[in-house]
Write a structure and sequence with these properties.
Elements (H helix, E strand, L loop, with lengths): L20 H15 L2 H12 L3 E7 L1 E2 L11 E2 L1 H14 L1 E2 L2 H9 L7 E9 L3 H13 L3 E5 L1 H6 L4 H11 L4 E4 L3 E4 L3 H17 L2 H15 L5 H7 L3 H8 L3 E5 L12 H19 L5 E3 L10 H9 L4 E3 L25 H9 L1 H14 L1
Helix pairs in contact: 1-14, 2-14, 3-5, 7-8, 7-9, 12-13
Bound molecules: zinc ion.
């Protein structure tokens, strides 16, 4: 790895997330609904009407801050604790594996089932989320990309953010990624998001080559010590495994599986499982698809998961609850974003239900 600064870099600000008109109205509506107690009433009513539904929450990073500028979703420890306490009081929080087994067997779940999950295996999960979960005795699943734990390498999207936001270069010319003006901070954030979209569409080997080329040209890469400190260690994992946290697979190298030859996908799926079981001494029977949009998953990949001994798999897909008849290898998740009101709006089912009605009207 080429290295940039070894000290904590000056942060070039956070990404500016522009809300669309619909989202702005959605947030206003959420505020009003929260103030009127509509959300909790809807949640109660919904649970009386449906046989059961389950909310699988998808977190990434939990902490007061991140060591590098990033657009990976970050939940503060205070917000996380508020959400955990709320879930514990109003929902039946269960392990994802238990939920997956019941769904697979066609058994009903509690009317208010919920599961907490984290993707990628950032070390802040150990530092900031685990103490909260332990304090309140709430189970959770963390999905690990095992090569990153073994080697302490930064994830590709963090390398892109670091290189583009902290380089001293003022522009980038890349055959694979295009030309970018890096003269201002907003232009750099814009470049990060454009590159992320392009990279996600590339087959895995091409994506990796494009990133290596970009990092070389910009002369800035996540320093090795920072990368090691960002990712969980097996010691962290074992301590959490002994205290109510379970570990699922997020493959070995975090490739987009749809772009891989099936034999390679099979290896990513099987090897990560056996490595996690070897290091934790516990079964690893849940899986989260890397870059887990529905379109990135094929029936062949789902069959490999079932043959490899997994009981269920989750999409990254935000904001849909799981209902009877769900495919255990295509479970939707809810992304806890923004403020507490919006969180309650999502887990109650009100926001997912409204979104599905609006989408049906649009497509219907
Ligand atoms: Zn991931």
């Amino acid at each position: 790895m080429t290295t940039g600064q070894s000290a904590k870099p000056d942060r070039p600000g956070q990404p500016h997330v522009a809300l669309g008109t619909g989202q702005r109205w959605g947030l206003r509506l959420a505020g009003a609904a929260g103030a009127l107690g509509v959300i909790d009433a809807y949640g109660l009513l919904r649970r009386r009407l449906v046989r059961w539904s389950a909310c699988i929450l998808s977190y990434h990073r939990v902490g007061p801050d991140t060591e590098l500028p990033t657009d990976v979703p970050l939940t503060t420890p205070a917000d996380f604790e508020q959400q955990v306490v709320y879930l514990k009081r109003r929902y039946q929080v269960m392990s994802l594996a238990a939920m997956g087994r019941a769904i697979r067997a066609g058994q009903p779940l509690p009317r208010n089932a919920a599961a907490i999950t984290f993707d990628d295996g950032y070390r802040d999960n150990y530092r900031h989320a685990y103490p909260v979960l332990k304090k309140h005795g709430v189970p959770a699943t963390i999905f690990l990309a095992t090569a990153h734990i073994d080697e302490g390498h930064a994830f590709w999207w963090d390398r892109v953010s670091y290189a583009v936001l902290l380089t001293t270069a003022r522009k980038l010319e890349s055959d694979r990624l295009g030309s970018y003006d890096l003269g201002t901070t907003p232009a750099r954030w814009e470049a990060v998001s454009t590159m992320d979209v392009k990279l996600k569409q590339m087959p895995d080997h091409e994506k990796n080559e494009a990133i290596e080329e970009m990092v070389r040209k910009l002369g800035a890469d996540v320093p090795a010590a920072m990368a090691r400190d960002m990712i969980l260690t097996w010691k962290d994992v074992r301590e959490m495994a002994a205290n109510g946290i379970t570990f699922g697979s997020h493959t070995v190298h975090h490739p987009t599986l749809i772009g891989l030859p099936l034999e390679q996908a099979r290896q990513e799926i099987a090897d990560s499982r056996s490595r996690i079981e070897e290091m934790t001494g516990q079964p690893c029977d849940t899986f989260a698809y890397p870059d887990g949009r529905e379109g990135n998953v094929s029936p062949a990949i789902k069959s490999i998961l079932a043959e490899s001994g997994y009981v269920c798999a989750v999409y990254a897909l935000p904001n849909r609850l799981v209902a009877p008849g769900a495919d255990p290898f295509g479970l939707a998740r809810v992304s806890p974003k923004w403020d507490f009101t919006t969180f309650r709006l999502s887990v109650s089912g009100l926001y997912p239900d409204l979104a599905s009605v609006i989408n049906r009207r649009r497509t219907g």
